[in-house]
Amino acid sequence: MEALNQKLFLWINATPDSPGWLIALATFIARDAIAIVPMLIAALWLWGTRHRLNAQRELVLKTAIALVYALLISWCLGSLFPHPRPFVAGIGHQFLSHAPDYSYPSDHGTTMFTVALAFLCWHRLWSGLTLLAVAIAIAWSRIYLGVHWPLDMLGGLLVGMLGCLFAQVVWLFGGTRLLRLISSCYRTLFSLLIRKGWVKE
User: What is the rounded distance in angstroms from the CA atom of residue 167 to the CA atom of residue 150?
Assistant: First the structure.
């Protein structure tokens, strides 16, 4: 498996002869595309039509639960099965600055794949597939720039599946009560902005 991991990495990884524009594009995707997650979650919670707002907030809360659980699993796996990054192992070429910490599974991959799977499961097919395309682009970019292995991204996908499964189980046992509690806290903390009409109640 490790031999296949290295072979796939070297096939994807950029070289000094790779086009500068492609490295620049990969750098933007690797660093900045993940920002879509907090912006999307905030927008779905704060704004929307009255008849859709409750469903949007349910989606946000399920996604947040899945993310917390997935990142916790990711941290545990990284601690139990430490794996050096490609540039630490002296393999391939590195085009993105990164701390020499352990790589498996990818936090970026875990986050983006979890959100994509959450939207596939609990929102709409088109939104889930769009986010899945972004997740794949992020996975490609971080391998291309030499800071992750392909199996790091596969690990992120699998952990994201576990996160969504856990969130669904949690929701069945107490999701509605949790949503009411968090909505009540939100109305208290954002009461001024709600009264001004800047965000939805």
Answer: 26
The alpha helices in the chain, defined as continuous H runs, are: 2-12, 20-32, 36-46, 50-80, 107-122, 125-144, 150-189, 191-196
| % the chain with pLDDT above 70 | 100
**Contact (CB, 8 A) for 33 and 134:** yes
At 18, give phi and psi (nearest 5°). Answer: -70, 150
Closest residue by Cα to residue 134 from 117, 148, 152? 117
Nearest residue to 118 via CA among 32, 28, 41, 35:
41
Instruction: For residue range 102-148, list pLDDT tens digits in order.
Output: 889 999 999 999 999 999 999 999 999 999 999 999 999 999 999 99
Reading the block at residue 85, the tokens are 């990054």
* Residue 26: count of CB within 10 angstroms of its CB: 22
Are 120 and 38 in contact by the 8 Å Cβ rule? The answer is: no
